[in-house]
Design brief:
28% strand; 5-stranded mixed beta sheet
Chain lengths: 318, 318
Amino acid sequence: MALPCEIGDYTDFYTSIHHATTIGKQFRPDNPLLPNYQWVPIGYHGRSSSIQVSTPGLGHEFARPYGQTKAPDAPQPSLAPSRRLDYELELGVFIGRPNAPGEPIAMSDAEDHVFGIALFNDWSARDIQAWEYQPLGPFLSKNFASTLSPWVVTLDALEPFREPFRRPDGDPQPLPYLDSAANRERGAIAIELEVWLQTARMREQGSAGYRLMRSNYRDAYWTVAQMVAHHTVNGCNLRAGDLFGSGTLSGPDPSEAGSLVELSAGGKRPITLANGETRTFLEDGDTVILRGYCERTGYRRIGLGECRGTVTTAARGR
Amino acid sequence: MALPCEIGDYTDFYTSIHHATTIGKQFRPDNPLLPNYQWVPIGYHGRSSSIQVSTPGLGHEFARPYGQTKAPDAPQPSLAPSRRLDYELELGVFIGRPNAPGEPIAMSDAEDHVFGIALFNDWSARDIQAWEYQPLGPFLSKNFASTLSPWVVTLDALEPFREPFRRPDGDPQPLPYLDSAANRERGAIAIELEVWLQTARMREQGSAGYRLMRSNYRDAYWTVAQMVAHHTVNGCNLRAGDLFGSGTLSGPDPSEAGSLVELSAGGKRPITLANGETRTFLEDGDTVILRGYCERTGYRRIGLGECRGTVTTAARGR
């Protein structure tokens, strides 16, 4: 099975303020949210070559990545398989219509450039990231693999599930180039999201897995249209097939966190699964399943299918 | 004229320790070089869609980008054309032979995966970068345009200009996965590099421009082979046509700085050009020309041609 389209460039956003705040607290307890967050739809470029499709019934298997890590008290770093491997619950947004270099896409046209939405797991090696990411951002901690669900749901199909986009009281309103009446009225999309974990032992026991969390895309701090308008305001050209990741979609409640580093408080609070196993980060043989769907009385339920990926044992010594 | 090949993914490295130190001093006077720099060939993903070729005789024109910036004393950010637009003197390294997902490329094979080298200007909007880049790295400050020279010089052609790769006394040696006898013996490449600035007034005066600086690629802290081995050690797959940027190639002397933000000390020390004009950052109508060549007695001179780009006036209000 192939990817739904050829992805030219992949951009990862960071649109959940709840994720940004929880992660920020782990690094900067006194100052969890950086001052740009409420103004800039933060994004950065990712790797398109290593995005693979979740084939129905099989998913996507990849080996635990190696990388440099350095313990705070170690005299120097070393190369080893990641010990803090995590998933990230995201949605993937596909660009359908390109723009020419130098020609920004206004908020009023932004959704006309979007084809549709899929489930997306942007796996992360938290220990590799901590050592490498200053000053230019994550690199090897992210580019070993990303997994995309095989079906793309068009924005048209999501029409019944649109909702107003609102900022919490007291938060700044978006700058004019990130604002429009349509975005305020219907910029958000209500998509129920779930992450399931199936360990190797659960597979042996015949269990389909344990649900780790639920959240809803309506809680994102920036909308699809805002991602498109921001990405192009400097003249950057998008091409058909380009992919945006929403960033990890954590909701307002701590139980709605879209990654293990949040759910386990940075590895300090192991999560107990239904069969008594515990996890802080992913172990070899773990399968992570993302699911998404939209439901509203009087409308047909829409499923986004599933996005399934399995971590296998790291290859032998590098 | 088209790009030399279809670029799947573009990765920008940061291989000049002189550039990293000078930039670091502007942000952190007491701690200019971050602790990971001497261990990790720092890199991050860039945008491939906005890389354009420098057509001989014409170059590449692009409009000054808009973006969010925020002055330290301003109550909130605003959207405006960048006022600190800069070039970056880089080399572009083209991948010729791919690797499969999950299969790292060892140092001993790394150069077999490289096709050749071109000149590369990875333009930067320093004011946009300062506001947006925490915590995930540069984004709109870089992805509005990059300019590539039209000719690729193969590694075979550069054979006579190979030199030993050496670390300064007291610096740590690379970890084993970034080390090889061949890399120590001939990992570096002696390529003379120059940046020229031709202002609009110089063009009117019939002047070909003013040489802002010279440096040499031999002074990079990480080699081509090390970039390839590091990029793939986690299993990340490269594809034919992928592009690596070397990062800004500043030399050890302050006069060898590969960007205006370095040459003008962050805009504090204007540079006086031959015709009396001054610059801190680029002005509308400025053309930046990168040149590169290799010379060694007894061998044929090899030129990398030129990489020429011109900044035009920002489009009207966004």
